[in-house]
Amino acid sequence: MARKNPNKNKKNADKLLDPSRRNLLKNAGIVGAAAMGSGAAKNVIAQDGAPTPKNSNVSPVTREALEVLTAEEAETLEAICDCLIPSDANGPGAYEARAVHYIDRSLASHNKGARESYMVSLDAINNYSKKTRGQPFFRLIKDVQNSILLGVQTDKVPGCAPTGNGFFSMVRNHTIDGTFCDPYYGGNQNFVGWDLIRYPGIRLSASETDVAKGSALDANHQSAYDHDTYTKMAANMALGQRGGSDNA
Amino acid sequence: MPKNLPKTDVVIVGMGAAGGVAAMPLTNAGLKVIGIEAGGWLSPRDFAPDELRNGARNWPQSVQKAASEAPTVRASSDQKAVQGGHPMMNAIGGTTMHYWAQSWRLNPWDFKVVSATAERYGADRIPADSTVEDWPFGYEELEPYYEKVEYAVGISGQAGNVKGRINRDGNIFEGERQNDYPMRPLRSSPFTDLMNKAARRLDWNPFQGPAAITSELYDGRPPCQYHGFCNKGGCHVQAKSSTAFTTIPKAIDSGNLEVVTYARVTNIVADNEGKVTGVDYVRGSETFFQPADVVLVASYAYENVRLLQLSKSRLFPNGLSNNAGQVGKHYLSHHQGSPVIALFPQDLHNWYGLPAQGVAIDDWADDNFDHGGLDFIGGANLWVHTDRKPIGAAKMGTFGKVRNWGSDWKKFVMENADRTNVAYIQKTTLPYEGNYLDLDPTVKDPMGFPVTRITARYRENELKIAEFSQEKMEEWYREAGATEITRTGLGNAMGASTHAYGGTRMGNNSETNVVDRWGFSHEVPNLGILGASVMGTSGARNPTLTVQALSWRTAEHLANNWRSFVF
Predict the structure, then answer these.
(1) Of A98, B274, B362, B434, which is the most buried if we count CB atoms within 10 A?
(2) Cβ separation of A197 and B390 shorter than 8 Å?
(3) Higher pLDDT, B219 or A51
(4) A235 within some domain
(5) Which residue of B has its CA nearest to A177?
(6) Taking CB atoms and an 8 Å cutoff, what residues of chain A touch B227?
């Protein structure tokens, strides 16, 4: 995550981690995930068949595990997200941002309450695709996927929960969250979402010159958590009680 | 049995905007104060510039007391109330940690809506079903307390009327002040300059609004860095003048304030002589009784009302201080919805900015314009501000131009992410018969106590102001060059709000009000109530500074008359 970032601020934090552990986390692409819950690192099952990038202007997506969704659910959702914010001639979309990875992880935390809705609705959409088009949703061509998704949005695909439109609005919201959030949460990878809308990135201080430049300001490609101030390890250092390595 | 603690002079329930200010005059007078707070201490390290954390993850208030007792809401008594969210947070400093920090004085008209309306337009212009009363005192009486708070917590702004001297860069409609703000206003931005100039062309009177945010080094705190994560987020440099970083630490330093964190007050204990003796609270798995000579209730409006309603005793079988049946009455949620949304043909440069960095128009607020030919009273404060974040930008409406997803949508968002703006319009909102707070008959919090039930809806007067102000707002945006405008619905139910008023209204008449002109209960002499729950009118602007001025006044009155309270 955030490999374009010079990451000056991370150096101190790195020192607190056992180097081999640090690399393990990095390779698993879950530097952020490690802080999300204890034991996250050891439960990771890295996928060898990582998705291949569609847009050549971004680096390959790191390996990621499914934490909540089933493999089939993730395939369906991946295709839905790609309809909502497509990877197209105008640049990368939800796919490169890894919105699905974000949603998957969020279903174990702040979006926990939406788990059942995803389970039921993704199944309903797939069943509808198989019944009416003879193929699971993710195998259909984009135009057909779009027309089915429009059916979901307008309550014409049966079996979605709470309703087709309700599910659609929720997935749309979550896909946007996953495309434009801080990369810490597993989405907006390589800052593709922020670059898409020319958001120059978070700054701890914005001068009048920065504001005047606005979208023309150089993108700094930093996560909030590239700043030690906001990391668990920095908090512990400040308290002077514990080292960071056993909390990583 | 709760564990008995040593007695103190004053116990304050809630260390937020109100209690955090009240602690100052009390501890300055040498009184021993214990502040009981449901949340804990937060520090700048907790406030990462992270839109998702402030928004979807609803941190840090998501696991707090307020969230666990969110009110249920219904528009009228023939409906079933449904539980929603609770917009406030628990922490030392309360919601001043993550609020927008707009810090207004009310307009003098807001204190005398009934008499001023009757005098200028006739008494029949007061909506027939409204229970509005004049405040028991005018703006002039609160003015010194506004000033005390502005200096104690640190407010930036441009005065418009100092001792009758009008400054057109400030709010020319404001009540007369004795002194300037302690700090100059927050800086302007390309967008606020654009809107300011447009308003001048319309011959309106734009000005930069006041904020509880430092614009320069103040009292050891650095100036605002304009990085823009104020909305539901705390300040990473303590530029936001939360009571947690201003009055509370000072009161603690005096040696007279002790703060108890993560403690939930469950009952205000009354004796058989009609006085309160202290409060019961729960901390973890332990329960305590904190005795005190005087109890000041300073939690949020819903919680103030609920705590009184839950505190039943022999002399107060319907809840504390509720023998006149007024607790929960005269409730209102501020009408601050129904925004107008504009699309401009150029970038607005709002990626770095904050909700309190903006331009206000008061020409259409309060009674600042002639209502002779209109069919409502009061008005609206129009507010446009900077502050744009990626997720919020991507969730913008599309002005009917494209479907809200797919390639066309993506192109639209890529072009317009920094080109839309949402106006914030606060309107005069009145109390009405049939709008009230009570205990929900079925929904309970995790401790088993019923939550608050809001039964309330906006009436004709609010909806007419909403329509009128949308018209004015559109005019302003168009003048500034907006090419597309969306107006949203006018509103119906009064949902749980960050601007909740009434329920323990202040007034001289003990038949229609819970507290007297000083903020003390008409029925229980040593019980004071702090917060917007004592306010009978909303005005057209954010309540916090008025809440704080009233709190200071109540606390100072208590300190000055201590012997008469402990007789």
Answers:
(1) A98
(2) yes
(3) B219
(4) no
(5) B391
(6) 202-206
